[in-house]
Amino acid sequence: MRLLLTGATGVAGLNVYRAALEDPTVSKVTLLLRREMPSWAVLPANASEKTTTIVHDDFRTYSPELASRLAQHDACLWALGKSARGISEEEYTTMTHDYPMAMLAALRDAGVGEDRPADKPFQFVYWSGEGADPTERSVQMWARVKGRTENHVTEFCKSTPGMRAYIVRPGYFVPPRKYPEDWTNQRAGWESGLDCVLGPAVRQLTPSLTISVEDMSKVALEIARGRWSDVQLFRNKTMRELSHQL
User: Fold this and answer.
1) Helices 236-243 and 213-225 sit at what angle, rounded to 10 degrees?
2) pTM here?
3) Which of 37, 72, 154, 238 stands 20 to 30 A from 56 (CA)?
4) Does 31 have pLDDT greater than 90?
5) Which of 144-171 are b and which e, b meaning 16 or more Cβ less than 10 Å from the residue's Cβ?
6) Coil, strand or helix: which one is 79?
C-alpha cells in the first residue's frame, strides 16, 4: 500500500507514521507537511528509505503537478488538526473542513479514482473525534465543524467514482509513554499534568471513551487497507474492539 499522510507531527499522525513504517505491507509513505519532520521525533530505522516528504505551505490549493503526485497513492490518512481551544470558528473551520475538502478536490481532478478496480477504491480516512455532531446542532463549535466535515467528506467520496471515505472518531488518547520526547514536544506542561491526574480516572470509569495511540494507529492502517469496507464510521468503542483482532 502506498500511503499519503497528513498531520504527522501530531500525536495521532506521528504514531500512525511509526506504525506504517513498521508495517511490511506499506511500501511507501508520503508525508504532506508544512515543514520538515522535527528532529526530536524518534522514528524506526527504515524511515528515510520508506518515506517521501513533501513540504507544502498552503493546504487550500494544489498545483496540477503536486496533485498528480499525490494521486499516485492508494490511501490517505488525514490526521491534520488541532484543538479548537483559543481559536475562532472561522480559523478552526479552515483547518478542519476546508483543508481536507481542498485535498479531495485536488485528488479527484488529478484522476485518483480513475481506472481503479471496484474493490480497490482510493481510501480517504478522515480523523474526526468522539462527540462530533453530523446534525451540526451541537452547542460546541468543534463538534459542529467536525460533524459538517464528516458529512461533506462522505458525500464527496460517494459522488466520486473510485473513491471511498471512512470516518474515525477516537476518544481520549495521549502520546505513548515509550517516547518521552513526544510528551515534551506535543504536550504543554499543564496538559501533561492534567493527563497524569485525569487520565487514569477516565480510563477506569469510562474505558469505552479512551484508546491507546498504538491500537488507534493499527486500526487506522487496516481501515486504509479496506479491511472493514462495509463500515464507514468507526467510533472509539468500535476501534477498541477491532484492535483485538490485530
Assistant:
1) 90
2) 0.94
3) 154
4) yes
5) bbbbbbbbbbbebbeebebbbbbbbbbb
6) coil
